Amino acid sequence: MPGGYRIGADVGGTFTDIVLERALERVVEGVGENPGGTFASTKVLTTHGGPEQGILAGIEQLASEHGVDLADVEQIIHGTTLATNALIERRGAKTALVTTKGFRDVIETRTEGRFEQYDLNIVLPTPLIERKDRLVVSERLSAVGEVLIPFDEAGARDVIETIAAEGYESVGIGFMHSYRNGAHEQRFREMLLERLPDISVSISSEVSPQMREFERFNTVAANAYVQPLMASYLLRLKDELQARGATCPLYLIHSGGGLVSVETAAAFPVRLVESGPAGGAIFAADLAARYGRQQVLSYDMGGTTAKIALIEDYTPQTAKTFEVARTTRFKKGSGMPISIPVIEMIEIGAGGGSIASVDALGQIRIGPHSAGSEPGPAAYDLGGTEPTVTDANLELGRLHPDTFGAKDINLSPEKAAEAIRESVGARLSMDDHTAAIGIAEVVDENMTNAARVHAVENGKDLAGFSMVAFGGGAPLHATRLMDKLGLDELFVPPGAGVGSAIGFLRAPFAYEAVRSLYTRTDQFDFVAVNELLDDLAREAESFVRQGTDAELVVERQVSMRYKGQGWEIPVDLAPGAFDEFAAEALAGIFTKAYEQFFGRAIDDLPIEAVSWSVRVASVLDRPDVLQLTTTGDIVSVPTSRPIFDPVTGADAESGIVERSSLGRGDAVHGPAVIVEEQTTTVLGSHHVAVMQSDGTLLVTRAGSDRKEH
Amino acid sequence: MGQTTSQREVHYQIMWNRLISVLEEQALTLVRTAFSTSVREAGDLSAGVFDREGRMVAQAVTGTPGHVNTMAAAVPHFINDIGPERIYPGDVYLTNDPWKGTGHLHDITVTTPVFVGEELIGFFASTAHVVDVGGRGYGPDANEVYEEGIRIPIMKWAERGDLNRDLVNILRNNVRESDQVVGDIHGLAASNETGRRRLLDMLEEFGLDDLDDLAEFIFDRTRTATLAALEAVPNGSYANTMQVDGYNDTITLAAELTVTDEGIHADFTGTSPLSRFGVNVPITYAQAYFTYGMLVALAPELPNNYASLFPFTVSAPPGVILNAQDPDPVSVRHVFGHFVTDLCMGAIAPALPHVIPAEGAGALWNFQASARAAEPDSQLPPVELLMFNSGGTGARPAIDGLTATAFPSGVMTMSAEATEQVGPIVIWRKEIRENSGGDGEYRGGLGQVIEIGPVDGYMFEFSAMFDRVDNPARGRAGGGDGAPGRVYLDDGTPFPTKGKKAVPADRRLILELPGGGGFGNPSDRDPAASENDRKQGYVS
């Protein structure tokens, strides 16, 4: 529908961001020109009691401000942390988990390891479903899906009576090796629904048919746990939107970065976990496509955490499993594993509100505790007394009371300095300024290290990557990260504060179906694999077709390893069915991928394939690649103030430039700050920023050649 | 650069963080590429950077304490044995000497010198458990270290960038799975090389010529903090003994800890004599688990480096099981090695009544089996299997123990589904063992029950090495003992807990893993906690 509007709605922990986009029109509306159309945005407080209320308020506000009739909206795309929060805060349904007899405790005994080696008082995460709510049925399949113990119908009936008597609202079913054969799980569901037609049921062979029982059982338990809540929420939202005249379809963004229908979302709500951050990565991927950048590091920094994702060929890196609700310092292993396709990112406790302290070694530490928005950084003067990253940025002159975006907050440099002095400076015999430098340098180093480790985990070298920085905190730190990582280019797009919601509007309809089928190249079962891949393609396409008639693209992947290894690496498959020569070809592409990952392949070992996946997505209309403006007219800088410049290690008189005053081709030379409502972009003495046609800032190092690696 | 003292301080802090991050990258790459199950599931590897004298400046935090100081002690041996005048740029050294490395032949330590120009400034070292080292294969059955596999003295894997092809050839002819073993050694060398390059980048970025000042900064900070942490234990002497099942006879482990202003010394006099089997422990490995116990109790936040490890010293008369000498067999040194942590923590428990937990299951119950065709002419191929399983940990002074969780080892278990994909067995049951935690104000962690049988057409033979069957984990401060372990077949036949034996084709093996000891008087337990134990079926 030409001229139609689209709305993106991102419900986060503190704010609900709404973005309104009008397609095919290129009027600048405060935030700049946007090749897909124009957009306006608003932030309203998240209404935790009923998140739909915040969304509706935000939408109505934007619609009335811009004179839009909700009937002219052609699509609403929504992402929410509701499912994530329900898992973190344990606010789900009364749920039973039914497993194969003998495997009742899989989600409690976890990996049998400790995620923290040096803590005698370590507390492992409590299982999502308590032991008393975990029930068992006698049945057993072998590793190839053959029946070793038949499904015990009589025993199942008893279990169902228990479920009825105890009043469970939702049931997750996880049987051993059900990723190979879901018949027993299906039979149990059938019996359960016969007896209790209104109960919610999730079966692991549908929710997450991947090998490894701990991850799969947890995933089906999580799905069952949030399903009643999410289904009723989505229904309410849909009804309320319709009641206000928005008759268009509502789509949900999922953790893999694609769109699904409300029906699919309600059936597999666990796929909505981490959908907000996924929007951010798509936002960065869209910018990568606009500028034809094949390798991009997406850097999103907010109030409590920083998130880093890698984007190649305009597509964010994905994984088949991740962890939510980490209980201890974002530490790997302290959360709950969820096996679903997800945009892969690393999240660390480094945000504007992250608190700085000094440990027993006299080392400055940042986070993971955050002052959040209440009481907030000491500088907010709202009761916070501990120094945060924001306080350090204020002390260093990067932020300033006169140019700080949030209108209702008066930054207090005195309070910031006092907090820095008391918690850090005094303990290390440093003046306030040096202590602030220490805080800023440590947080930058933490983020840099996280980015490097994340790259290594993905077998990538960051040389040649461009950075995209968004979120309120990232542009303050991005040039320092760029220097530390040896990157040559930084993009700071407009709308950085609502990046995820904008990202939602750039997402394709997409669904990735994953299933485990173990086979080896020296005994390759190409018939079974062909059948599996066809099944997966059909499954994925059926979900995508609920939302679009567009042309589709199909991508297939397999995770493989040498026999004897424990980690698989993803290998992309060429289109077409396998034949009797497939094993050799597959071994060849694995070897190449392995070399790319680890530098060196190993001869003569059999290769194992573990999980197969098919992603079906609608083809996006990519905008034409924008011509980069790398040099421009140096703008005159009306005002300046002293700001710490890490490039020289000293304060420098730095220009202050309003971002909105910059036109296409205008260049700002560092040291300078470019200020806007939602963030501030900091330039060191060797940085140059040039305004692009779409409102993006391109930052490079003046006169510097590409750093050699 | 004209830096103030404070700016220098900030720079050094940043560089310290960077070093640890570089080592983590190194360790991560090793875990991902390693073939050995114990590397990927147990984090049985480590990576460290050393100054030019071989003092460890920083180490990656990995899964197992077994390398805490064993690897730190290794690098001075390399400098000494290679000879300072024979250390050249482009060199790579290695060894698996149990007494100069990390305690058994299966661990290979690779060391790479780092030069700035012509000047040696330090070393990177990394260690990983490899799949095979020849000999009898992994197990306690050798009577001398010679039977346990090939021993590589400290020597050059590469000199000035040229690979020592003769050594590669010798290795290839002496180990099973030679591609994997040689692949892992190349991986260790490559990871050191990554570390070397990253270190040089860092020195350039910060305008340094060598590591010396940074190392001094790190040692200085760590030394002060470590000695401050030791003040929690009053100077004096603290003794403890502990009985464990042993390989053939009950073994007494004894330790006397002497605490001074300068550190803690552990002496193992009174410990039972050496075993004929490969369960003996080189003292460097016992020292690792002693040091780990002290650090986890007293200074959990401190990083491992020369200065934090230096205060912890050990001694033992020759001939005791915690002081194996060349050529004693040491292949399975971890079983008794792991008990050293509980032994030594138990000694200082009276001085730290709110810190030290009760005893736990301690040693892992590894299931290491060879599955073979039940009918020899059926042509079914043999398959080697290895699973790690853990009992309960001891209750802490204010928290229950951990159920089915490894301590002090950092090992993780493998997925039953993944195990069944690889080997011809069925894991029929793997769940919490009810009523197995020691009573107390805080309950010991529960063990688990595992039931395993071969698939049709197979039988399996396995090396049992299960402890705490006769000697349960003891409670502390009035807490009860954890349940002892049990091993039997599904028809009730008792099964030996030590040595190699076959499980017949139609039978299943049942392992009941020990629970951890309780802490405090059971009558002081919060009634709500007891009620929850009954509701969840932890206690019936």
List keywords for this structure.
heterodimer; A: 709 residues; alpha/beta; Nucleotidyltransferase, domain 5; Rossmann fold; 10-stranded mixed beta sheet; 16 helices; B: 540 residues; alpha+beta; 4-stranded mixed beta sheet
Can you describe what's shown?
The complex is a heterodimer of chains A (709) and B (540). With 709 residues, chain A is α/β, with parallel strands linked by helices. Chain A folds into five domains: 125 residues, Nucleotidyltransferase, domain 5; 121 residues, 3-Layer(aba) Sandwich (Rossmann fold), CATH 3.40.50; 233 residues, Nucleotidyltransferase, domain 5, CATH 3.30.420; 109 residues, Dna Ligase, domain 1, CATH 3.30.1490; 69 residues, no CATH class. Chain A is 30% helix and 27% strand. Chain A contains 16 helices and 36 strands. In chain A, helix 1 packs across helix 7. The radius of gyration of chain A is 26 Å and the shape is globular. Chain A starts with a strand and ends in an 8-residue tail after the last strand. With 540 residues, chain B is α+β, with helices and mostly antiparallel strands. Chain B has two domains: 219 residues, no CATH class; 184 residues, no CATH class. Chain B is built from eleven helices and 19 strands. In chain B, strands 2-1-5-4-3-6-7 form a seven-stranded antiparallel beta sheet, sandwiched between helices. Chain B has a four-stranded mixed beta sheet with strand order 8-9-10-11, covered by helices on one side. Chain B has a four-stranded antiparallel beta sheet with strand order 13-12-16-18, with no helix packed on it. In chain B, a hairpin with a 6-residue loop joins strand 8 and strand 9. Chain B starts with a helix and ends with a helix. The model of chain B has no long low-confidence stretch (mean pLDDT 92). At the A-B interface, helix 3 and helix 12 of A face helix 1, helix 2, helix 5, helix 6 and helix 7 of B.
